[in-house]
Every structure is written in C-alpha cells, then in structure tokens.
Amino acid sequence: MNNDWKTLTDKMQDGSVLAMSRLITKVENREPGWLNAMQTIYGKIKRTPVIGLTGSPGAGKSTLTNEMTRVLYSMGLSVGIVAIDPSSPFTGGALLGDRLRMTDISTLENVFVRSMATRGAMGGLSVAARDVVKIIDAFGKDIILIETVGVGQDEVEVMRAADLVVVVCVPGQGDGIQAIKAGIMEIADIFVVNKADRDGTDQLAMDLESMQMLIPDKAYKEIPVLKTISTTGKGVKEFVETLFVKLKELRQEKSRQEKRIKEELVELVEKEIERFLINKWDKDGSLEKGVNKIVAGEENPYSIAQDMISSIIK
Amino acid sequence: MNNDWKTLTDKMQDGSVLAMSRLITKVENREPGWLNAMQTIYGKIKRTPVIGLTGSPGAGKSTLTNEMTRVLYSMGLSVGIVAIDPSSPFTGGALLGDRLRMTDISTLENVFVRSMATRGAMGGLSVAARDVVKIIDAFGKDIILIETVGVGQDEVEVMRAADLVVVVCVPGQGDGIQAIKAGIMEIADIFVVNKADRDGTDQLAMDLESMQMLIPDKAYKEIPVLKTISTTGKGVKEFVETLFVKLKELRQEKSRQEKRIKEELVELVEKEIERFLINKWDKDGSLEKGVNKIVAGEENPYSIAQDMISSIIK
Known about the structure:
Oligomer: homodimer
Number of helices of chain A: 13
Largest interface: A-B, 60 and 60 residues
Largest sheet of chain A: 7 strands, parallel
Number of strands of chain A: 7
Radius of gyration of chain A: 22 Å
Mean pLDDT of chain A: 84
C-alpha cells in the first residue's frame, strides 16, 4: 500500500471524517492500490448493522431516514448514511433535490452523510455501496443506513449491501402493484406504511400482509408491517425497535450471511474482469478492430466474441 | 452445427414459424451449439429495421403497438413483435396481463409475436433481445417491434437492440420527470404523447419539446413529438410515417451503427465470460471454498477475488 493510501487509512482510524471521505472517493474511482487498501480496511470492520431503505418516489423515505436518525442519535448511536441519488442524464451527476431536507441531520454530531449517484459507479452500484459501507464501518459508526430514491433495478441491487431491507410504501399510490413489478417485494424484511394519516392506510397495510402469503420462499417468515407519519415522527420509535428485533433475527441466519458474501464475491470478480477487459481493449485496440470487421461485413459478432474470449480466458 | 440446429435453421428458412419459435427458445436457453447456430443465422439477416417502444406503465404501449401493427400490415409489411414482460416474483415467469390485448393482432397473417420475461434471460436481457431480433430478421420479417412494459434499467437496456426508440408518454402522469429519472430521455428518438384526447396533452408535448434543449449531446438533432389516440387509431398513421423518415435518417449515421455493434460485442463477451465463470465454479467449487473462508474470517473478499481473477485470466 503506497503512502497516500496509508496516510488516509491511518488518519481515518484516528477519527478524521475528511480522510474517510477522501478514501471513499479514491475507492469509488478505483485508483491504483484500491484493492490493497480495501484489504486493510476489511481488517478493521466490526460488521456494523446495515439498514437499507427503499420505496417508491414520494413515499417520504428522506423524511423517514431523518426521523430514524434522530431516534438512533437519541439512543447514543453514531450513524452513517449512504444516500443513493438517481443520476441526472444531463450532467451525469446526482439529482440532489431530495437531499436538501437531509441537511438538518447532517449537522448532528456523529452523523455522516455520503451521496452516491446511481450511474458511473466504476465497479457497479452494489459493489460500490458495499465498499462505502465497509469504509464507514471501519471508521467506527454504530449503524449504517442506505437510502435510495427510486424503485428500479439499481435500487434492488444496492439493497444487496444491506443486512435488513425496509420497503417504504404510501397509501394511494397503487404501491402494492408497483412493488411487485419492481421485485421490491422479494427483498423486503420490514414494510413501513408512511404518511399513515392518509386515507387508505389500513387497506394498504392489509394488502401488504396478505400479499406475503403468496410468496412461496418467504412463507417461513413474517414481514412486519408498521405505520409511521415521518413528518410528525409518529411511529418512528416503534419502527426502530422492531428493526432491531428483526435485525438480530436475520443476522443469526447463517445461510443469509453466506448468500450475501457469495453475491459480493461474484460481483467483485465479475466487475474486476470487466475493468480488466476495458483496459485491455483500450490498449490493444482489439475491440475497435472487431467492430470494424463486423461493420465491413467481414465477420459476425459471434465469431469475434468467441475469439476474444479464448484470447483472455486461461 | 449438429443436426438438431441444422434441421431447425433449414425449416425456418423454408418459412416454418414453429421452427423459428423453437430456435429462439434453444438460443435463449444457451443450449450447446447456440453460438455456431447464431453464426449461421447471422449470415441470413438483412438488417431488418428494429423499432423499440417504451414508456411508463399505463401509457398505452400495447394498444399503440397493436394499432401500429395494423398500419404496417395494411402497407403490406410482415411484422415481428418482441414483447418484454416484467417477470413475476412469484412464479419467475412473465406477467401476461398486458398481453391479452395483443391476441387480436397475433392472429393476423404475417405477424409473429414473441414474449420474453425480464428475468432469467441467460445471457442478459439486451443480448437475448438482440438474438431474438436476428432470428426474426433471418426468418424474413420486414420490420420488428420491441415493446416493453416498464421504464426501469431493464427496459433502457433492451432498447439498445433497437435502431430507433419511441418513448410513449401520457398526459397527467408527471411523465416528464419520470422520463428523466429513468434515463429514458437519453435514448428517445421519437416521443409519442398517447391518449392525446386527455387534458394536459399540449402541455406535455411542449414540455417534451423544451426539455430537449437541455440535453447537450442531443442538441444536434431534433426529437419529433407526435400525438396519438391509440384506442381510436387517431394519429397512428402519421406516427408511422414520421417513424420511417426518422429511421432512414438514423440508419445513415455510421457512428450510431458502430456504437451499437460495439455495445453488442462487449455484452456478448462479458455475458459469455459470466457463463464461463458460473460453470467453472459449479464444477470446481472454488466459489464455495472462498465463501467459507470469508465466513470463517480466514480471508477477506478482496484477496479471494484477486486470486480468483488471476486463476482465470491469461
């Protein structure tokens, strides 16, 4: 590990938030030496609980994350928040609108907020999220929240970095159906019906209860359905209590831990091979040559792909 | 190429729709010999125009596809339709609700409809869609439509298999913002405001016009905004006419063709390497061993990943 990395990891261990932020950026950018640095960091982690919060846009996830953080803070816990923002197609950067509301908690002592954009994560979004989580863990936070804005495949993927997934729904959005479509249902460990002062709250809660019966491989466990009004804080404390009970339960499931580690390992290997390929093609121009042959009608993509693969794989 | 594949490709060339369907299934399942079969099929393609239709749920894409098919049919064109259905989390299969409406066109002579589920595509959804498109092309259809149900990353990806992408919007759904979030805006070549008898049609059309000004790399070209009422067929003929004009324009852009072929090649290689890895791990158990070491705390994922990569890559 070169000096730069060593200085940063040392400083982070001494409690420097700035060093942690820089480390995250360097790892996100896959700067040379990142794999070694992550090995060092991995040695420091304490497997801090990681809570994922997802749900449809407008469900009030940011406000709920805010209120939840206040409750955790009042319990004396230090909190790390990873906020996944959809990328703007115009700038490539994150759309920060929803984050404005988070400024009030980010000024709390012991609360660290980090934004990540859904696009451009060098090693894939879930890999990147796992890296950030490990760095925050090694820094010493007591609990980490990952909050997403959308409900697409990106969000489902990033939730793989969490120990426990909270799906936030809201009455009157046809969330039940939306949740099924996006595959969110399968990853839920807790349902929260937010904005629970609205009409349709009880109906939605009942729908979420009854839908569970339809999922064969979730039949063995019950997914709690809780109600909150995050703007007033109502129900948030009860939600956090349930969360800790559920978390303890889930962390005892060995098969679940193994599955997560397996997914992580597969993604790490695949994304690194992808990066290797992109670098190789950049250098030797073999991709361009292949494309030109196909455009010229001299070769077909399938035979070119076969040649490329046998030139790479042992 | 073994006999099975040869019989099917021969029969398909003789016009057997059943043989085409079976070929698609075999290629989708990556049955041994598929790469060779696709090379043969690639030799028969005529680069039939491929039109992608995407947009938010409830925008009326299925009805529009129906009406569009009628117009194309009345022009004497034979049509292939690839319908991408979101997978059900309960069964793993496609949710066919939206397809019921399509039965009336699938009985038309010269119209071939094939459903594909968003999950479980062995080589990735866009790779799978490109394979199906090539088979239908080699069969001899004059035009191919790919229609999706959702607006997630899956849909954006599958649209890469199209020469021209139509984004279908509908007034009163806040589509403008949704489109930006999902990255749909970037891939649009034509916008259709469907259900154009609703309030807010003109506003939405104007929003779609003005939003284009904000996209830097699309500044050079104009994205037409058309209005249709697919339930009555109003505006569909004009839409199809614009579509052919735009298609001709886009197909003359060499850089666009190269980009598509490049993407295709990269995905083919990456997905085949992925399949290679999965097979290897199944056989030698190296993934399981790695996971066990991490679970036991003997090793970290980053060093295991590094070892795995160097055992695979030349």
